[in-house]
Amino acid sequence: MRARLSDLARQAQVSEATVSRVLNDKPGVAPETREAVLAANVAEADGIELLAFEDTGAYRLLLPAMSDDPGELERFYAETVEPLVAYDDQYETDLVQTLETFLECDGNVANTASRLFTHRHTVRYRLERVPDLSGLDVSSGTLASYFAATSSTA
Hints:
By secondary structure, the protein is mainly alpha-helical. It has helices at residues 2-11, 30-46, 59-68, 71-91, 95-104, 109-116, 120-134, 143-151, and strands spanning 17-19, 50-52.
C-alpha cells in the first residue's frame, strides 16, 4: 500500500503526502482531516515525505486532546517549553537544544554530551535548570512525547 501511495504522490507532483485512516463510524471528513493534518505535521518535523496516520506513534494520543481543546497544547507549551526558550534567549544558553538532544539520546547524559560537544557535567547542570523553569520532570518517561509535540508548535 505504501508503494502505491508513493506512486500516487509522485503522479500528483506533491513532495509530501499523508494518509488518514478511513473512519466509517463518523460521518464527514473532519476526523480524517485532523488525522491527515497531524500526519503532515509529524512528517514535516521528521523530514519525511510520506507518512500514514498509523505511523505517527505517540502523537496519535495527542489528537483527541487537541481536537477537543486545541488551546490546551498552546497552554501546555506556554507553561512548560516557552519559559525554557525565554531563558535561552535572555541568557544565551542552550537548554532547549540540550533537552531535545537528551531526549533523542534516550536520556543518556554521556551520549548527549558527546553529541553537543560539551562536558557531561554541563549537560547535567542544564538539565537541572529544566524543572525549575518549566516544571517538567526530565526523568519522566512521557516527557519526550510532550516535548516533541509542543516544541514543533512554536
